């Protein structure tokens, strides 16, 4: 009898040891936030709340203006309205959660929502890269082949290009998210950033992620490099073509594509994917700065650049605001 009890106790003890060694699945993730300093967090809350509000107002106003003004029903402004829509969505994926977490000590996010955030973050980021590339092609056709422009960039082609770039962004995001989700996660459960992203999340996996990191770098790096080459080639051809035009035509063409070129420079110069995926998944202090610029500042700069540098957009906005003021007076 005593032998049986001893054997039973030993079996229970072994089960306890096995359970102790077994990893606990990560169900919630702790976000590091912008800073541990409360004063810095409060200042950041005020600043990014202003950024987010103006991002929404500016980009939504551009979309409404393009829809309202029939003179802006051209391929260029069709893609511009898509860019504004993406900026609103891209900023909304991360900034509201960051603002809420400012007043939270734990800054928890469920793993499922964390994965969802990763998916939409990469969906909108990749789609924006593709969109900027398509807009560069649109400017190339408009400046270098003006007589064939409406034939080449007809509405059917524009819609197909829009569907293609959104599909490409979706496929890219599904691929990265799938690679990340299939890993086993057993802790730690803290990310040193204010949102979930693939490089930080895979560090929580309790397995070797070297191959996954190579696949992620290859996927995102290839997209970034190819789009960058296409953009550089497009604008190089445009600049060469402008040298052969008269001064007035050259000035108008430069004014037309200056806003787009500025946005491309800002986006690629501070692109989160180029910065993060060009190296292994190691955290650097600069990561948060680049993340803030990419998710909160760039979406705000786009409407400012396109409204201040574009005469057609400014005229359409003034016309829209005048019409709205007239209705209020009535």
TrEMBL record:
Note the topology in the membrane: Multi-pass membrane protein
Q: What span is annotated as the signal peptide, if there is one? A: none
Q: Name one Pfam family in it.
A: 7tm_4
Q: Which UniProt keywords apply?
A: Cell membrane, G-protein coupled receptor, Membrane, Olfaction, Receptor, Sensory transduction, Transducer, Transmembrane, Transmembrane helix
Gene3D superfamilies documented for this protein? Rhodopsin 7-helix transmembrane proteins (1.20.1070.10)
- InterPro entries in the cross-refs: GPCR_Rhodpsn, GPCR_Rhodpsn_7TM, Olfact_rcpt, Olfactory_Receptors
Q: Where's the G-protein coupled receptors family 1 profile domain?
A: 58-306
Q: Which domain of life is it from?
A: Eukaryota
Localization of this protein? Cell membrane; Membrane
Q: What is its main location?
A: membrane
Q: Does the keyword Transferase apply?
A: no
Q: So where does this one cross the membrane?
A: 42-68, 119-137, 157-175, 222-242, 254-277, 289-308
Q: Does the keyword Transmembrane helix apply?
A: yes
Cite the PROSITE patterns for this sequence: G_PROTEIN_RECEP_F1_1 (PS00237), G_PROTEIN_RECEP_F1_2 (PS50262)
Q: Which family does it belong to?
A: Belongs to the G-protein coupled receptor 1 family.
- Function (record text): Putative odorant or sperm cell receptor.
The cross-references to PANTHER family, in alphabetical order and at most eight, read: OLFACTORY RECEPTOR (PTHR48002)
State the protein's name: Olfactory receptor
User: What is the organism of origin for this protein?
Assistant: Equus przewalskii (Przewalski's horse)
